[in-house]
Amino acid sequence: MLSLLPFRWHLPELVLIVGLAALHRVAVHDARARRLVLIALASFLVVTIWPVGDLAASVSLTFAAMQRLVIMLVVAPLLLMSTSVDFLVKITRPRLVDPIVRRLSHPGVAIFVVTIMGTLTLAVPVVDLGARSIVARDLILLIVLFVGLVMWVPALSIMPGAKRFSPAARAGYIAGSAIVVTSLTFVWIFAPHPLYPGLQNQFALLHMSPLFDQQFAGFVAKLGCYVPMWTVAFNVFFNADDSGVSVDDSPLHWADVERQLLRLDRKRARDLRRHRPD
Asked: Largest CB tally within 10 Å, which of 55, 151, 207, 234?
């Protein structure tokens, strides 16, 4: 089946994985978190190197959909969950980073960014460019990973200083995200002809016509997104404390208090500069 697909060394992907591993060696403090990192990096490795990575890049939209599902639903949340709070505090503390993270922690902003950037990475010219260029392919993979991180930030409620939502709100966000991020799959399923000329050799390698590969990718993306994300949403909702915790009464952690105090200090400094006489 893969006789026409040449083996290629994926040095950029290997460098990225080594870099993430080195970064998380600093950011991870316990054995459970290290296991999560190992699972995340192993999953990323499997879907980005030969043969899955090459099939996803230049042959099959179905494999591209599976690759994105793994990166967004496995790699991204596990990397976030395994990162220590102390490390998150350090990397989000800078004056330029904090307001960006604060806005991305809002569900509406996160969904908007995920929808726009996720759709752009699946636009026909972008996919065709990734099939021709190794640099473009790796850049697309990084964007997909970023999109996955943004999508899970509001759901996990781990960013310092971000508003912490109730279990019901988080469950609703996760369930809604699954619908929004797969909206493009309707086009794949109902399009009367193949949309991605850059993806080739589907029949020679996978015994599927380009149109069937595209339609099958739509169903794979929908089911592969709905099933795990709705399972997580129901688990978050039904495993919440019976008494519930309202958004306004949700407890603050010291990292949240420290970040709010830092923002107040920065606001006072801006106000003083603004009202300082020339």
From this structure: 151
**Measuring CA to CA, how many Å separate 163 from each of 174, 232, 250, 260?**
16, 20, 9, 11
Can you give the pTM of this predicted structure?
Answer: 0.88
- The answer to whether 75 and 44 have CB atoms below 8 angstroms apart is yes
Query: DSSP 3-state assignment of 183?
Result: coil
* Three-point CA angle 133, 2, 8, nearest 5°: 40
The parent domain of residue 227 ranges over 11-240+248-269
- Summarize pLDDT for 29-42 with one digit per residue, the tens: 788 888 999 999 99
Tell me how far apart the alpha carbons of residues 204 and 78 are, in angstroms, rounded to a whole number.
36
Number of domains into which the chain is organized: 1
What count of other Cβ atoms lies within 10 Å of the Cβ of residue 135?
10
Q: What is the rounded CA–CA span in Å between residue 228 and residue 65?
A: 15
* Residue 198 belongs to some domain of the structure: yes
Q: Write down the residue that tokens 């193949």 correspond to.
A: 194
Residue 277 lies in a domain: no
Which pLDDT tens digit goes with each residue over 95-153? 999 999 999 999 999 999 999 999 999 999 999 999 999 889 999 999 999 999 999 99
